[in-house]
Every structure is written in structure tokens, then in C-alpha cells.
């Protein structure tokens, strides 16, 4: 006779759970996430929240480790709720920070699906749009960028794929030439020609490296490519789902693009900094 893994009582032959116990357990998990998500996004009495989720846990067969994981999931949900309008307010940031501190939630756990990074990115964008230069990232070690006076690093993307547009030329309809016999021992050869020249453009991967974003420039540093682009030299920005493309103000300049993995943040970060 098997025992129910939730209530510990006999579950029947070759059975490990009661249907009712499993249903109650799953409903309890959903309720904890919902409760934490609501308070995390709107703010509220955290001690009351703690009592509520502990009561749900005790009646839904939720152990302590599972409860801690559910609270982290609720915090992630709160971040998504806060970004429903595309912006992170100071009130929402404060509520999320208080929730994190109250339950001693580790940053590593909160960023398992990128929620903590999303929170920081939202705060950075709000600072910039408010006219303030963000100071929210900590850089360990030096950067391979020769910063100018009064220039500050706002964000650094790692393992960024850099792409350049290349023009390739090929010829269509060419001829190798032919020899025509006019008389015995006398030949006339027509000249060979390459045909019509056709040019095509394609985007090629040029390097992978660091992309630094400051209040004055975009910097890129990879094994084979290193350069910086001043914001006032960029004429267009092109948003991509996973990065950004730029076109410099030069007659011979060709489109350049950077694959950061987060096009929404990259585009908003760079375009707003360029207007400060």
C-alpha cells in the first residue's frame, strides 16, 4: 500500500498521491505566486503577506524550500506586471526591492530567468529619461576602452556579435572568346569579356566582443575589430529584436549592427543616451 507524498496517508495500491491532495498542492503553489506577484508590483504589508503565504503553504503541503522558490517566482511575476506599460516607476522599483529584502531573496535566484536584470535595465532607462546619468552597474577589472574626459560607462554588453555590410561583385553573361577560321592557317579570335557586372550586398559576421555604451560613444572591442562611434556621427538607428543597427554620417560608411540579445533595451538605451 503506497502512501500519499503530500499528506502521508495510505493512497492505495501502487499509488503515491491522492487526487485531492495533488490538486490542493498545485492550487496552493499558484496562490502563493499570485499573492507575492500582486504585492511585489503594487506594494503592501509584507508581514501580512508572509503570514498569508505561510498559511497557504501549511494547508497545501508546500515545504520550506518549495515555498522559497515560489516566492522567487512571484517576484518574477511582479517584475513582468511592473513592465506591462513598458516603464518601471520608482514606486514599482521600491516595492520590488522591499520584497527582495524582506524575504532575503538572492540576486542569483531572481535572475535565473533574467527578471533581476530586467529590473535594473528598466531603472537605467528611467534614469536616462529623467535626465540623469545612471550609475547602477559595477565593473570588475578594466575595460579596453580609451574613455574621454567626463565620459562615463552606462552599460557593457558581453559576447556581442558585430556585423558589417559587405559589397560583392560578380559578372553575368561573360564569354571566353572564340577563334574563327578565315582561311587555311589564318584565324580570327574574338576577345573575351566578363559580361555585366552585378553587385550584391550582404551582412557578414565580423567579430565578437564587448559593446560599451557611454554618455558620448558606442565602443566595440573584439579580437580583430576595435572602434568607437560618437552619437553625433550616427544618422539612423535601426531596432532589431536581438540588437541594434546604426548608420554613420559618412559617404563611404556602411550599416553596422550589434547582436546583444536584448533589442528592446539596447535600442532604448542608445537612442535615449544619444539625445542627452
Give your account of this protein's structure.
There is one protein chain. The protein is α+β, with helices and mostly antiparallel strands. The chain has two domains: 128 residues, no CATH class; 87 residues, Pleckstrin-homology domain (PH domain)/Phosphotyrosine-binding domain (PTB) (PH-domain like, Roll), CATH 2.30.29. Helix content is 37%, strand content 29%. It is built from seven helices and eleven strands. The strands form three sheets. Strands 8-7-6-3-11-10-9 form a seven-stranded antiparallel beta sheet, with helices on one face. It has a two-stranded antiparallel ribbon with strand order 1-2. A two-stranded antiparallel ribbon has the order 4-5. The protein is elongated, with a radius of gyration of 30 Å.
Produce the secondary structure layout.
Layout: E1 2-3, E2 10-12, H1 19-42, H2 46-59, H3 64-82, H4 90-102, H5 107-110, H6 115-129, E3 153-172, E4 179-183, E5 186-189, E6 196-214, E7 217-221, E8 226-230, E9 234-240, E10 243-248, E11 256-259, H7 263-274
Antiparallel strand pairs: 1-2, 3-6, 3-11, 4-5, 6-7, 7-8, 9-10, 10-11
Helix pairs in contact: 1-2, 1-3, 1-4, 3-4, 3-6, 6-7
Please write the string of helix (H) and strand (E) elements: EEHHHHHHEEEEEEEEEH
Q: Which regions are unreliable across 5 or more consecutive residues at pLDDT < 50?
A: none
How do the strands line up in the largest sheet?
A: 8-7-6-3-11-10-9
How widely separated are the two ends?
A: 71 Å
Rg to the nearest angstrom? 30 Å
DSSP strand count: 11
Determine the structural class based on helices, strands and strand pairing. Answer: alpha+beta
**H/I helix tally:** 7
The overall pLDDT average reads 89
- Give a quick account of the main beta sheet: strands, pairing sense, barrel closure: 7 strands, antiparallel
Shape summary: elongated
Residue fraction in strands:
25-35%
Can you give the helix content as a percent range? Answer: 25-40%
How many structurally independent domains? 2
